Amino acid sequence: MERRDFLKRTGPAVALAAVAGSTGLVFHNRETTRRRTVFAKSTDFEVPADPSLPILTSATNPDPVAALNAALDGIGGIGRFVHAGERVVVKPNVGWDRTPAQGANTNPELVSEMVRLCLGAGVAEVIVTDVSCNDPRRSFLRSGIREAGEAAGARVMLPRAEDFVEVDLGGKVLRQWQVLRHFIETDRLINMPIVKQHSLTRSTVGMKNLYGILGGRRNRLHQEIDQSIVDLASFVRPTLTVVDATRVLVSGGPQGGSLDDVVIENTVMCSTDQVAADARAVEFLGLTGQQVGHIVLAAQSGLGTLDFRNAGFKEIA
Amino acid sequence: MTIQTVRNLRRTSQVVFFLIFFWLILKTSFEVDLSPAEASDIRLPYPVSIALELDPLAALMTLLASGTLYKGLLWSLVIVIPTIFMGRFFCGWICPLGSLNHWLSAFKSERKSRRGKKLLDSNRYKPYQRIKYYILFFCLGAALLGSLQAGLLDPLPLLARSIGTAVLPTLHTAALALAAATRDTGIGPLAAVGQGLYDVLAATLLPFRQAHFHGVVLMGAVFGLILLMNRVYTRFWCRGICPLGALLGVFSRWAIFGLHKDDKACSGCNKCLLACQGADNPEGGTQWRQAECHMCLNCQAACPEGALQFKFFPAKVSTKTNPAGTAKVDISRRKLVASVIGGVAAVPLFRSGDAHEVNRSPLVIRPPGSLDEEAFLSRCIRCGQCMRVCPNNALHPTLLESGIEGLWTPFLIAQIGYCEPTCTLCGQVCPTGAIEELTFAQKVGDEQTPPMRIGTAFFDRGRCLPWAMATPCIVCEEWCPTSPKAIYLQEEVVLDREGREVTVQRPHVDPALCTGCGACEYACPVFDRKAVYVTSVGESRSEENQILLERQV
User: Fold this and answer.
1) Of A194, A292, B36, B123, which is most buried with the most CB atoms under 10 A?
2) Distance from CA of B547 to the nearest CA of A (A)
3) What's the complex ipTM?
4) pTM over cut 0.90
5) Does residue A45 sit within a domain?
């Protein structure tokens, strides 16, 4: 056999063998852990404290819109919290496939009024969103919040699987977790919880409502619920907490269902102090802040004050 | 009107009906922009089940098996009555699976070589075309004893479930994977293309969230095989397998519209045969078969001599060179009877096993409003529309959970999704009433009526955090949707490993209140095998499958 012939006939086989061999060597024991992009950004949406104003206002009025406006005016008005050109996220509780009367989700009238007030202050856009427990399509529809938000001019965003980003929350038990993008990519956050009974935490108001920014398997958080709520409240500092106590779910929470469990209180509270807001709100459930583990832990962690009555509390009839 | 115009009309009709069918399946879904008239009862805005209600096979078989023609199935007369006079126009003009087969047959890779003898030969009438009649009469026999098997091969439910539970979810997975893969490359424009493609699909075809269905590979494989067979034989499915085509063939027994052949004009060029969809012998010198013809009119359009003509009252007289067409189906009475007997015999065989009566699977949790198992199996055509419309991806096609007899009927897998307490969509879209249409009050219950129950929850105390691990967790109770909650908590002081006292709230189920919705199982944090799970016992639809003495069914 000629040399040339030999090379011609063995060439392709040798080349393929070389490719196979080098592929094996190059990829041998290669690390294949997938890259996880971890998002880190300040989520402190607070405005500067103003000692001349109360930290917590509470207004009672059969008209929820009037109650909201009264409580908000008492704490400095909308202009103190949102400004022209800012992006604002309003986070009501839209956890469940329940009607407004059942008191499991935030009163839609309050949500639409809040959106209107923000837009009236000249903000760039208002997003209304929440990570529901039940199917978000049904929850946003039946709660009336989708309609209320859109009618007032907000973008109502139902969370999709691809809208979550991996975030380092830097807490004691809450570290890397899935967070809905909209809560990171905003300038102001208005937390709008409703007051409900809860079997593990006794109450769910403002800080517990922040669970709704998380995706992933958040049902594991109940094992360290007090610490995880405090971790969350330390990570996200809302600009303003607006507590809906127009209807209070005193038992059967947090999902409710029976109108017998709902007590009409016609009250709306506004607060710049998450702990104070929750401590006042749990009184509607016959509790004090001292009796609620996560509220006590939050106060100890320096997130706010339990003793709101001496720190600037204004009640408006 | 020339024959070309009529043929173009047929092509248009095929496209239009296919698109309508596809659109109806897309709309069999809980959409984000629904606005209900009243908040308590969310209803779909379109009568999406119309696509399946037009199906004469589903109508006949459910009528035989259940003794009643459910609601919209009366629409099937719109197809049946014209077929009696005109033949199988449905197959050539309307059937969406038939059209799909038609189009795919035209794209044979070896179509050039098939223009010749091979295609001619494969388009001649063949004995395998009798299989569809055997299938039809087998299903008929089974239906006589109350087992509805026709749905497995009925083209409309078959296409509906294939698109809804196999094709669209596969597309969804693929689109998401492509978007993720392009994003991971880190190349901006490429990522934008991947994401853009996904966004377009999400806005047009894909549901709000990715659905995952149980054992759907088999369903996809069957569908793929049906499509692939068109490469071997033109419309193999329609010619050989389809029991709906067979039924319509039987119904055309006394049709007054058909093919008239002028054998004197025929030059024997066989151009008609090359274009034939049904393999029904359009060419001169052979006996035309009414029961096989799809009424596509290709033969008439292909004939250069004008020897073929579809008309009312075609000649029935045989000439020396050309036998007259026949409306009889090519299956002997003996084989017909044998097929029926086979179907009749299959039912006791299905049911003599343990799965149907004595050892029913606890996993078979039927959708809310489902009839009792026997009645359910006499109606379910396995169209999969309940699975598609379920907003929580809770309903899945069975494989062997409800026996061979119940293949691809719906059951609930609470670990994937639970039954939304106030939702009644599955009963709204069920075309045959296997799942009854419930009102809001029937679903959730009120003072007079108990809520619709589909099963009962149980705790696996060896896996439950407060029971086994001295760890607090009340997620099941939190999610329990009944009022008062069926899951209740009892506070107990337990010792942890170090001997310290820990107060936990241990969950219990009150079977008198539990509806079996599975929300607890879905939400339970013990991820792989849940510490609380639902089985079918206690379901409203069954008299025997109960725990409590006093439960009202």
Assistant:
1) A194
2) 26
3) 0.90
4) yes
5) no
